[in-house]
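Sample entry copied in:
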Amino acid sequence: MNDQHRTMGADTAVSIVGIGVRLPGAETADEFWQLILSGQQTFRAPTEHERELSSDFAQAELNADYRAVTSTAAEVDTFDADYFGIPRHEASLLDPQQRFLIEAAWQALEDSGHAGDFGAWRVGVFASMSPSTYLSGPLTSAGLWDPSDPSYGVLVGNDKDFASARLSYLLGLGGPSMNVQTACSSSLVATHEACRALQLGECDLAVVVGSSISLAHLSGYVARTGSIFSPSGNCRPFDKAADGTVKGNGAAAVVLRRSADARDDLDRVYAEVVGSAVTNDGSARAGFAAPGVDGQSSAMSLAWARSGLDTRDASFVETHGTGTYLGDRIEARSMQKAFGDAETPCYLGSLKATMGHLDAAAGVASLAKTALAVHHGMIPPMAGRSSMSGRDDLSGTRFAIPEQPVPVDELRAGVSSFGMGGTNAHVVLVPPTGTTALPHVDIEEDVQLEVFGPDEARARAAAHALAEQLRQDPEVRLANVAHALIRGRRRDRFVVSVIARSAAEAAAALAVAAPVDLDHRADTPTPGVRLPHEWVTLPLTRLNRTRFWVRSEPNTPITSAVDEVAEVGALMGHLLETDPLEADDDFFLAGGDSLLGIDLLAQLEQELGVQLEYTDLEAARTPAGVVRHARHGKRLDAERASTVETSADRTLLGDLDGPQGSERSLVRLTRGEGPEVFLVHPAGGTTSCYVTVCQQLRDQATFWGVNFPGELAGQRPSIRSLATRYIRAMRQQQPEGPYRLVGYSFGGNLAVEMTLQLEAAGEEVSQLVLIDAHPPHAYIGGECGPEDYLDAFPHLLSALLGTEVEFSSQGPFRSPQEVMDALRSPQLSETVRGHMASFFDVWCDNHSALKGWLPDAAPRCPVVILEATAPEPPEVLQMLDIKETLAREWARYLSDDVVIVPIEGDHYSIFRDEAGLATMRKALSDVCR
């Protein structure tokens, strides 16, 4: 048989043994599969933070065809540089695409169980990446990149040529390392090349990874006539409503191994690659950018011929599926030519319907999706189907669009990816064959488990994660776990080591064992049995991401500020029913509260065109501060952007340098002579509750409010990620400890996590104050959904406002805005009503974060617990499945240095009544010493 059509035999099949993702809506393979199976889409409006990250390309927003739609993985500007040994300066210069590529590849290696010592392996890297917009955007704007005088350090961190080599260098991988670039089909062509390298014996393990992040498209795109972008802001492949695609931003990776080797080592196999092919359309098409039927169909036919399977056996094809009229039409004709007719239906899918076009990462992400479908024996639904449903292109064919999950035994699937320019790739996947399982062996013998981390905190966190997994799987054979830890996880400086005979015994030991510094420990051999080992899933390493970004100063003219300050002062005075405030008069010290502040924000926008968030107002506080903050972090309207800055303006505007983006969560509440004290927000997201007591102590300390970043509302950030973000902001103001932290309610839990992260980094926390915070076990195990939060919202309003509330109807309410619209008493302005509806999203985010959080260790610092003497109103607790607890129960999670102080009132009234405020004032005064 001609080599071009040689069938892949059992000895040449390749197995997908690991999957890693950092994609819109998904950070792990399990999350990715749940997203795909749910049929949900990730298209949404960009956050303010994403707009800031794409500000170098903001002129696109002025185009009439601009669409404010994005599909982007979370925290594009963050990365765990320390874990991968990358210097921080170098990490700031590194294209986010390369950062995502590194993390996705590492996750895939860990998922495969082969992330230990690579010394005995030849590991190949086959990487694909989109052009760098970090280079042409922020780095160029900051003056760090000049094509006429290029910087070598900037070049290697951003050019596609160095993506695979960097990964090989960081991880010490000695197999072939190459970048594969064929436009949209890049990473599926890379899969084909990786399979060939494995079959030829050039490597023992292969990592295929694709990454694509376009900063220009984080805030949306221009849907010009004739482009692939959707005017409707959606992607509906093979649908009558289809009008294009949306740019997706993220990364995905798979780990491949020869199937015979995977079977010998009893690897967990998602699916087997039994055929692959790459072709080009040549010149038989309308133009260079146009697709061709013959080239696409030949790639499919050749891949299936090499698999030894008949195309009539196909039950699922993951299509290229861009949702463009020409692209879908050509692809449908190509599939009809390659797959022909059959009695059994062949269902179609497209990841682009879920999260848009991932460009260079599209092929490997689609491959990962299909491997998960094969693994689970389930064809997932096509996301985003319209009421108009199917396309005429598919009429009379065997192809069908699944609108619900379809279970299939022995799912045989194809994956297509077609690049602009005509390079086509197709891969055939089937369930693994010839898998064997070892008989169960009951052995009661000591087994040593070693869990590593680069520092004490990460080693402890990894040990706790494994302990939790062992509690959930008490029948697991410990020898398998020990083997998986040795083969599948990196040996770092710190280790938690325990010896046990059962999963329960090991879990208990891991929960309390202290990390040991290997630099000061003589290594000991691992005791226990030596048996063949079955596959065991281990928890993935939790990466501690921090922000790395190069910022440039905006090139926007500064406008005259004198009149604006006077106008802002007049607005403040009007709301306070006083004379206009002077430039440096504090709105809150003059009598303003949070509700008046919300009304002020609305009037600033309506009267002056100044758009600020509430946290901006808390930071600004004065008329001059409002103008300074508006010019620093926001755009003024075009009419005000034409005059030249005067010397008086410079006096009023002061220093324009300060926290931006994610760091704008930090606001100064007072400026005193004493130490800096950081007050962490409760579940509502703002620190207004602290203002009164801070004003009374304003000479004793500089109080900083730590506020929830508005751009994260609805994104469900975890407590750990918020803590990391806030610590970064704190360190901009106070680079070194000792730190003083105070947290009320949810803020107390968050302050504990911040303390743990600071202590793990070697910093001192001299004082931690928890103000009536529920202990973690009040939340763990509780279940509640969106409807529960909505039902609890009216009761929460009563507690927050400190009065009985009346509604024009009793519901059921369908949205928080409906709740606020129905509020009859007390009377609130429309602006306040709208703000409270937005507050609901932040409140839900933070309560959801508490449901899955437990501290990894006990803080070493002294702790004061202020415990309300009266019980909290039970309605909200019951509706949100929060256990009734006492704040003093926190003691079980803390060190011995704990003082419990009763504070008169309930959970809410302690901030309104003088008795509670007096106790709080005394506690904070002690912190200031």
About this structure: The first helix runs from residue 29 to 38. Residues 1-6, 524-531, 552-560, 633-663 have pLDDT under 50 and may be disordered. The radius of gyration is 29 Å. The longest strand covers residues 248-258.
